[in-house]
Every structure is written in C-alpha cells, then in structure tokens.
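Fold Annotation — chain and its backbone
Next Lines — sequence and tokenised fold

***
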Amino acid sequence: MITLHALHYSRATRVLWLLADLGEPCHRVDYQRTENFRAPEALSRVHPLGKSPVIEDGNRILAESATILRYLVAKYGDETHTPPRGTPEFWQHEELLDYVESSFAEVVLQAILPAFRDKPVPAQAQAALDAHLNFIARAIGTGPLLFGDKAMLADIQMSYIIALLARFDLLADHPKVAAYWAALRAQPGYIAATEAAGPMAPPG
C-alpha cells in the first residue's frame, strides 16, 4: 500500500483526490503546519527538502505532485485521467500539467503573499496574475473542466493553486475560472479527499 506523507493545507490533497478516483487506499501520515505556516521538521526526515506530498511505495520515495500523479496512473494502469496518447489533446494536457508548478505557482505566490498579510496585491503582480488567469480561461474552452466534464491529472494539479486564489478572493474578475473552481469542487474525488483531510486552502 502507498504511504502518503500529507501536510495540512497542502498539495497532498491532489494525491488523495487521484487515489479516491482510482479506488485505491493509502496509509496517510499527517503533519500539522507550524505557527509560521511552515512544514514541521519531521517532514525533513522523510525527504531532504521537507516537502509534501511525498509517497513511499516499497523502497521508492517520490516527491513533486506531477511526478506522483503520473506515477500512480502508471502503477495502477489507469488511462482515464489523460486524453488518449498521440492526440493533440494529450500534449496540451502534458503542457498544462507541468505549467501549474513551473510557471503559474510563482505568479500566484507573488499575489497571495501580500493578501495573506491583508495587504493589496501590487499592480505588477496583479497584471501577471490576470494574464495567467486569462490563459487558463482560454484553456478551459467550453468546459466545465480543462478537457470536458471529467477531471484529468492537469485539473487535479491545478486545483490547489486555484483553491488558494479563491481563498483570497482573487477570482472575482475572472468568472470563467471561478466557474471552473466550482466544477472542480463538485468532482467526487475532490469531495472525498477534502472530507478525509480537510480543505485545500486554510480557512479565512
């Protein structure tokens, strides 16, 4: 059985979502954040960078959400969480799956850090965020999710960052992305994961 090291209010909920979709159990080890909202030292004993999520599968230890999601669909032989291989949609999906953390997350961080301190988002950070949210709105297309009405890995990967933006009311000017967030929250795997481990984003 997979062991999931899960930090509270973290990207680990993505892994729980996929496992719920796959009908696969896991042994979950939970970690509470410190008073400064940091990961506790205990996670550094699991992974040198103190990251979450981390999974253990036998002697294999993996971090990084996108890698873990890809690993799990390969391990369990799932082909329902990506478009068919060899199609243009497949490669669009792979781009979006990697885009979330390689490009989007840093832009979001520049916006939510001031919001986290009850300060306005700087104009430059807001402009960058708006450009990315417009890009995501185009990717959603006719929706309700990125590739129709069933969550793909890219949707699961996107969910945590969108949850943070929603938490700080940063989707108000992007109704298509706000509707996307509502569609994500209606997915059975999201519901199961958050019922098991709590919300993705910290409460207000």
The first helix runs from residue 12 to 22. The two ends are 35 Å apart (CA to CA).
